[in-house]
Amino acid sequence: MSSDIVKAIKQICSEKNISYESVLETIEAAMAVAYRKEFGLKNQNIKVNFHPETGQSEVYDEKTVVDMNTLEPLEEKSPQVTSPAESVSQPQEATKVKIKAEKKNMKAEAAPSEGDAAQKQEQEQEQEGEGEEPKRKFNPKTDISLEDALLIKTDAVIGDVIRTKLDVAATFGRMAAQTAKQVVIQKLREAERDQILQDFESRIGEIVSGIVQRIEGKNILIDIGKTVALMPSQEQVPYENYRPGQKLRIYIVSVQKTNKGPEIVVSRAHPNMVAKLFFTEVPEIESGVIEIKSIAREAGSRTKIAVQSLEDNIDPIGSCVGQRGSRVQTVISELGGEKIDIVEWSDDPVRFIIHALSPAKILSVKLDEKHKAALAEVKEDQLSLAIGKAGQNVRLASKLTGWKIDIIKEGKPAQGATTQKAPEYGVTQKEEGVKTPPITSDAVSDTDDTTPKA
Description:
Strand order of the largest sheet: 7-6-5-8-9
CATH class of the largest domain: Alpha Beta
CATH topology of the largest domain: GMP Synthetase, Chain A, domain 3
Domain S1 motif: 205-269
Subunit structure: Monomer. Binds directly to the core enzyme of the DNA-dependent RNA polymerase and to nascent RNA.
Keywords: Cytoplasm, RNA-binding, Transcription, Transcription antitermination, Transcription regulation, Transcription termination
Order of helices and strands: HHEEHHEHEHEEEEEHHEEHHEHEEHHEEE
Mean pLDDT: 80
Distance between the termini: 72 Å
GO biological process, one term: transcription antitermination
Function: Participates in both transcription termination and antitermination.
């Protein structure tokens, strides 16, 4: 048994990066609790020295030598044990004392002395001003007086720790071994949970692969290697069907410590999952040449993503789409055919709103900066395209830009701020010298060459 315990402790230390001493301290603390429960006395401060190599242990009562002059003496509660005669006389004595106290209080209330009251108030203020810390009470479990300590150790001084060895029953040896084994197993589990928590805390915001283990109600439990992750219903993509054994790529949303171990929440509906997929597929995003400025997503249906190039000779949209749509198609396939609109970000809100409403062609945009609202004017044949199915296009554009956008038909009168005409590069692709317009996943198949400009 002893050799098994040593091996188990060393395994914990090597695999979980825990010190040998900390594991040993935990075992000794558990043994002390077990001894105190079965054999210990009320005022004994039990400490155990365990030797895992031999499996032997020593038990001590450990106390610290204290200066009784600096401590408040222990209150002795003697009225609990009384003789029959005392128990009869106690109520009578208590009644007499109570009557005297009441008479005294009545006199004091009837004729209070103003001088005495003032003097009492001054004394209370002086006592409060002194701010003396109350003395610590003597604790017979952990403290021992110098007088008693000298009977055990002739050269004892205040502050010394006196350890009195206690007899160890034969049954405690078996109990100690079993306790040590249980503590080691528990420590292994705790160390493993802490390591998993630490590993995945540093991976929040990453995409990992997993296999659907089981389905519990609306929650999906996914095996991600060292542990099982939770994908709640709000993090699932509508219209996706999950089944045990199915392989999935998932986005780590959060990691929390619970009584049952680390809880890792993952998602397939999070907008940042789209960003991470593009980060993997587009080297220019990974290197920082292209930035993803904002994302608006309705998982399973459509996503709009705004990108910006930090270099003039790099086309951000073309880089994300890839040659013949290869890059964006990889992302679309991973998302189960979800449509993706890639638009160019701009710090000009009019230009950005026009891009965000693609593929519709916008005639003009009117801004209400006070309420951060925008009114986009379109031709009649572009109205349904700008609004989108069930309002999806304008809804995603609003999320992407941070502006509340309304669509009106050309010629319809509008009130508010001055209307700003749409720049031509946001409307047509045909003029020379015009930047690449926003590209949608619907148009990818028609794009022959979308590589970055040389």
